[in-house]
Design a protein that fits this description.
The complex is a heterodimer of chains A (197) and B (278).
Chain A (H helix, E strand, L loop, with lengths): L4 E5 L3 H13 L3 E5 L2 H7 L7 E5 L8 H11 L4 E6 L4 H9 L4 E4 L4 H61 L5 H15 L8
Chain B lengths: L5 H15 L8 H15 L4 H10 L4 H10 L11 H18 L8 E7 L6 H13 L6 E9 L2 H9 L1 E3 H5 L4 H7 E4 L2 E4 L1 H4 L2 E5 L12 E6 L8 H14 E9 L12 E6 L2 E6 L1
Parallel strand pairs in B: 1-2, 1-7, 2-6, 7-8
Antiparallel strand pairs in B: 3-5, 4-5, 9-10
The structure holds S-adenosylmethionine (SAM).
């Protein structure tokens, strides 16, 4: 069992059946739509990884429209178009709109399986990259909190050191006063416990 | 893949540091090999020494530029870390506008913001969108938004304002995506109204940049991390000179200026920190 669900969209029942059988035999999960309208209904209900659609189908939802609908619902869905040799130009146009690939009829199954495998590899790399970047984001935001606290704390301590230095350098003031002032400064800003002598 | 020898490693690492300030860990030889492999095969270099010598002596600096593109990490995203953009919207810009608005209504308010390592532009476009949403009456302001980066490739992509779906999905809320971008196929392009607010150009932060003038806000995020301590110190001293006396500096969320530049004090606002000159 492969971890990929493929939606087959084709108005020709013979091709539909054949695709379904071959793909299932390869271990893919297969969903079937008889035309663009059915496909449109399936998209929001099922998780789909790859769409295999005929380019030209009856009605106003052809392969290109299926591609648009799929990408709008989830841009990570990959779409492979099945075309007659005569409509290769349209298929190339479709690739500019985000189709992953196209296959000419009659379908060469070895070729199809190879492309599906490539897509599966790519999707798993993508998922992996996304997991990694998520893990990195988490680490980064945890580190950011720590660093920001340290940064502010350090600035506070630096400020206090400067104030203490000013007090101690003041030759006019009696030493006991200086000590009191310094102890006040230490106690007030930094919950440091100062033990009485 | 072509292997790099220990001697070549030293040579190439030193060279990369000289041209970009980027310090690469010499214990990671695979990093040099993988990142430079496409240049090696493009020119059919037989050794890294050959690559080094060609890059160094070549007058039009094409290989040097390619090396910089290859070794610089351009990782960035829209609204990276979120905090700085909330800070911009709720604190820095309102304060700046108060401070900069001239007495006479006939005069415009001038604001200059710099993204000092803008990579592929996401940071500066996020700033531009924040400004656009905050300032309804744009004609009353003269706003200069500048993005600079050492990588030609990054500057070129930033200027095009074109991003693929993976770059878009990271960090950009859906409503902003619809409002400020146009989709074509798998890629998205920033709309002209935002594009017109910004300007990108090439700049090596290791070189002097006082001629850019003074800025009110400088974003210098996630670039100094690639530099050595002395280079970081020099950089932030120069940045202090380029910042208005009451201006604001924002660095990366995991960066710190402790031990790097005593001219700045950190200040906290909500979830983020910004710096001002002492
Ligand atoms: C990780 S990106 C940071 C982008 C953005 N500021 C952010 O935080 O998302 C680092 C960028 O710094 C650029 N860079 C590296 N060395 C540089 C230098 N000496 N001068 C200018 N830019 C440099 C790289 O080309 C890269 O695009």
């Amino acid at each position: 069992m492969r971890n990929m669900t493929i939606l087959v969209v084709d108005d020709d029942p013979v091709i539909r059946r054949m695709l379904e059988k071959r793909l299932e035999k390869e271990g893919y999960e297969v969903l079937i739509a008889e035309d663009g309208y059915q496909a449109k209904k399936i998209f929001p209900q099922q998780h789909i990884d790859v769409v295999l659609t005929d380019l030209i189908m009856p009605g106003s939802i052809g392969g290109i429209e299926v591609l648009d609908i799929a990408k709008k619902i989830n841009p990570t869905i990959e779409v492979i178009l099945i075309t007659a040799h005569s409509s290769v130009d349209t298929a190339v146009e479709a690739m500019k709109k985000g189709a992953a690939d196209y296959l000419e009829k009659p379908i060469n199954f070895d070729e199809l399986f190879l492309r599906l495998e490539k897509i599966a590899n790519l999707q798993s790399i993508m998922r992996n990259a996304m997991d990694l970047s998520q893990a990195m984001d988490t680490t980064e935001s945890a580190a950011a909190v720590t660093i920001q606290n340290l940064e502010i704390r350090n600035a506070e301590l630096q400020g206090r050191l400067n104030a203490i230095e000013t007090i101690l350098r003041d030759k006019q003031s009696p030493p006991y006063d200086q000590v009191d002032k310094v102890l006040d400064l230490l106690a007030a800003e930094n919950n440091i416990i100062i033990y009485p002598q | 893949m072509l292997k790099i020898s220990p001697d070549e490693l030293k040579l190439v690492a030193q060279y990369i540091h000289d041209i970009s300030g980027i310090y690469l860990d010499q214990s990671k030889s695979y990093l040099f090999e993988t990142r430079l492999s496409s240049i090696v095969s493009e020119y059919d270099f037989k050794s890294f020494k050959e690559l080094y010598q060609k890059a160094k002596t070549e007058s039009d600096k094409i290989i040097e530029r390619k090396i910089i593109d290859a070794i610089s990490t351009n990782e960035t995203l829209f609204y990276r870390d979120k905090g700085p953009f909330e800070l911009l919207q709720h604190k820095l810009l309102p304060e700046l506008i108060d401070a900069r608005t001239p007495g006479s209504p006939a005069l415009k308010t001038n604001i200059k913001i710099w993204s000092a390592a803008s990579s592929t532009g996401q940071e500066l476009y996020s700033i531009a969108i924040t400004l656009k949403e905050l300032l309804p009456d744009f004609s009353r302001y003269t706003i200069k938004l500048l993005g600079t980066d050492i990588s030609d490739g990054a500057v070129a992509q930033a200027s095009r304002g074109k991003y693929n779906k993976f770059e878009m999905e990271r960090g950009l809320p859906g409503d902003k995506l619809q409002r400020y971008f146009t989709m074509f196929g798998d890629s998205w392009t920033i709309k002209d109204e935002i594009r017109a607010m910004v300007q990108f150009r090439k700049l090596n932060l290791m070189l002097p940049f006082a001629d850019l003038g003074k800025f009110d806000i400088i974003f210098c995020r996630n670039v100094a991390i690639y530099f050595t301590l002395p280079d970081r110190q020099k950089l932030f001293n120069k940045i202090a000179d380029s910042l208005a006396d009451d201006g604001y500096l924002i660095i990366g969320s995991t960066e710190s200026l402790t031990g790097i530049c005593p001219l700045f004090v950190p200040k906290r606002y909500l979830r983020s920190i910004f710096y001002q000159k002492k």
